Amino acid sequence: QVFDDEGKDVTPHPLFHSDPNTVVARQGKLLASSAYFGATGSVFLSTSAVNASLKLMCLLLNLEQKRSRLLTSYNFSDVQVRQEEIKEQLTKEDLDRRVDIYLTETETVWILDMPSVVVSVESEDAGRVLERNKIYVDICKNRPGNDRFVEKMMQTINGAAKNKEVQCDKIIMEDKGMMVTSWDLYDSFNTSEIEPTSKAEGSRVTTGKSSKSHTSKEHDQTMSVSSDRGSTTSSIMITEGAVLARIHEEEECHSEAILTSENFQQDLFFMERILMENIFQPKLAAYRQFPVLIDPDVRSDTSGNVAAVKETKQEKHDKEKKDKKEQKEAFIDPSILPDLNKTPGEIVPPRLEQLWSYICDLTNGHSVSSMAWSKVNPDLLAVGYGAFDFKEQKKGLACCWSLKNPMWPERIFRCEHGVTALDFSMASPNLLAVGMYNGSVAIYNVRSCNNAVLLDSSESSNKHTGPVWQLRWMEKDRNATGDGKKERLICISADGRITEWLIQKRLDCTDLMKIKRTESEKKKLPGEKERKREALISRQAAGMCFDFHPKDTNFYLAGTEEGHIHKCSCSCNEQFLETYRGHKGPVYKVAWNPFSTDMFLSCSADWSIILWHQDSQMPILTFSSATAFVHDIMWSPKSAFIFAAANESRVEIWDLSVSIFNPVISRFASPRAKFTSVLFAKNTDCLLVGDSKGEVSVFELQNLGAPNSDKV
To answer: Pick from 78, 41, 684, 100: which is nearest to 403 by CA?
Structure first.
């Protein structure tokens, strides 16, 4: 019996109760003893003679240690014997022997383990579980309306493993060895630091055991050089070679320090400016309308060839008479062609003379999407590079070019997506706003040498979901000066929104207008039944371009992808003031006339340019000279009659005071290139044209008589 500290009987009861009446055949002593131990263990534990029981158990344990260690590997049903038979085999000594019993806990066997989904607050993993639950709640909260989550089922298929075997020729290994001495190693190490002697002298470095051919141990810093003819050897001090090598290294370090110094970089900058001025001086003078300086030496050399030049001009003039028909096909208006019967030099037709091009290896192959002049520095030009087609998208560039260096941009801003629009700020001229194809808007600081983004719209919740086709900085109150002069950034996107961006610690926007689709006004024929209205997939129309009124910035025009032009007001964002229908394709550009502020131009993918009056919904004039998309138009800043247009095949200059049927000047694009944008220079008679190959060409407008700008 087993008692606890309080005296209670806690003796364990046996799981098996043997039947004393059952008689089993006699078995071996091992089975009998082990069976008796298993079958009668509970019997002698419950008797009053505790000492006798302990002695009996000790005897059984000793017998089992000698024969077998497996005391519990037998079934209880096979070892049922009579207690009297077992008692006959025990002696008094066996009963008096001391027996030690040790009770140990058996190993726990888990049949079913189900981990709990509940964690105690006091456990070690409580903090980690709470953090994971918080992250999951945030994800579920931000999931509605987020374009990053897509409801879709997915099953991952693990492909079958494949064994690949490669056959090759057996790799043959060879062992090679050679004998070297300590002086061979020493001489070979030193010869690598000293310049090898000239082969013309026929000298060679030799090592050997003779006193004339190898270096002695006493003179370990010298080296023997013997000629092929067996002439006397001359010693070269290794210390001199080491000194020369050290001097050479110091010179290299000194020259590298000079090249990386700020003063040297600034000197190189000035030298580059001087070289560019010398190379492009005649063209820059023509651009700024200054007289071109001619070197006196060149002038004296060419003075003797004046007669030859005159003869060449006369021959050229005779050839022009014969090719009168070809000149009419040169896309120059016939009304302004010179009279060929007159002497040459009296009337010269207007033309475009190319001065230079802004292009480098970095921009080559990137399509020019937009151009903008700096509001303060008229020599600084910003050019955006990005494709208009979805299939041709790649990383974009925004470069700032200067007239002082047409061969490499002053600033280079690399963008992850194609640049579609850009513009300089008026209140802060160092800020450059850039619109991209993915709908994001970024602002860069051109004064900083760091090309990182100053502000971007990636964190804005109202950012555009379509390409930003045009953006522009506009003043809120043009009459205000100083601190009261504020500025806003206006963008139009393919998602059908015209937005106003507020520049604070981060970019955020509000909608000025959501462009809605309008039904086409088709006249009903007599006797025709009413047509069913077509169901619209989307109520919003993609915006393509806009332009604010030059005098009243509260009104603006917006061109759409469906070919309509809407007149809108900043005070009313629910409906349009007017809608102008005339184009059959997307409207790529609208532009108010800076002098006649009631007129505006529009160009479209339907190959046409239309002149409008804001009080009339019918087009006044339609210009169409080529079967190609018209990507860009711009009014001349010096005349109310002149505007430039860029279609895919050529760039055109129209003068409405001369002709309304044909352009006065046309220039074809280079092979495999398409013109994409045009921009007039501010203070000179020059035109900038961008193409699909990344080249911005600067042309001078020659012999184009601009009428008085006050005349309308």
So the answer is: 684
Half-sphere exposure (Cβ direction) of 307: Cα atoms closer than 13 Å: 1
Length of the chain counted residue by residue: 712
Burial of 544 by CB count in 10 Å (0-12 exposed, 13-18 middle, 19+ buried)?
buried
Q: Which residue has the tokens 């077992």?
A: 86
Into how many domains does the chain fold? Answer: 1
Task: Tell me if 643 sits within 8 A of 687, measured CB to CB.
Answer: no
Mean pLDDT of all residues belonging to the chain: 75
> Cα 445 from chain centroid?
19
Contact 381, 688 (CB under 8 A): yes
- Flag whether 387 is in a domain: yes
Q: What is the mean pLDDT of residues 668-681?
A: 90
Residue 615 is classified by DSSP as: T
Whether 121 maps to a domain, the answer reads no
Q: Per residue in 25-82, pLDDT tens?
A: 444 444 444 444 444 443 334 434 445 556 666 666 665 555 544 434 444 444 444 4
Question: What CA–CA distance (Å, rounded) separates 233 from 252?
Answer: 33
Check residue 352 and report its DSSP letter. E
Average pLDDT of the residues in 693-711: 78
Residues 280, 356: Cα–Cα separation, whole Å? 9
How far CA 9 is from CA of 6, 46, 52, in Å, comes to: 9, 11, 21
C-alpha angle with apex 681: 679 to 687, nearest 5 degrees?
Answer: 55
Helical residues (DSSP H) of 143-237, grouped into ranges: 182-191
Q: Are strands 203-205 and 609-613 parallel, antiparallel or unpaired?
A: unpaired
Domain that holds residue 599: 369-478+485-517+538-629
For the segment 71-130, what is each residue's pLDDT rounded down to a tens digit? 344 444 444 444 445 545 778 888 888 888 899 988 888 888 888 888 888 888 899 999
In a domain, 618, yes or no: yes
Answer yes or no: is 63 within a domain: no
CA separation for the pair 40, 462 (Å, rounded): 87
